[in-house]
């Protein structure tokens, strides 16, 4: 009955519509469904997505884009469902975001060091080439 009411309000969307709106493939949606991160309703054999599921997918995609693991994302989503005020979710999110920032800063330092070394090698190579001409 809930699905019929949602459909009457236009809240249900098909898999291709959701995939297109999110810029992903239906296969991606099925992947996250298989992982239990989203649970589309079914009408016969057709998957239909509520605003809640689309919102969860947006959070999942944002989490992946920011470099969080599926385990991290699942934890955030579980906390979101369990805590209506989202305080625990915000605590966990803040902690994990801090860790991710530290990881990225470390990677940036490593990249900066690698770039400096490559620039030095390039300068030395160009200098040798110039001297030999």
From TrEMBL:
Keywords: Coiled coil, DNA-binding. Residues 15-79 form the HTH merR-type domain. One of its GO terms (molecular function) is DNA binding. This is HTH merR-type domain-containing protein. It comes from the Bacteria. Residues 87-121 form a coiled coil. Pfam families: MerR_1 (PF13411). SMART domains: HTH_MERR (SM00422). InterPro entries: DNA-bd_dom_put_sf (IPR009061), MerR-type_HTH_dom (IPR000551), MerR_fam (IPR047057). It comes from Sphingomonas sanxanigenens DSM 19645 = NX02.
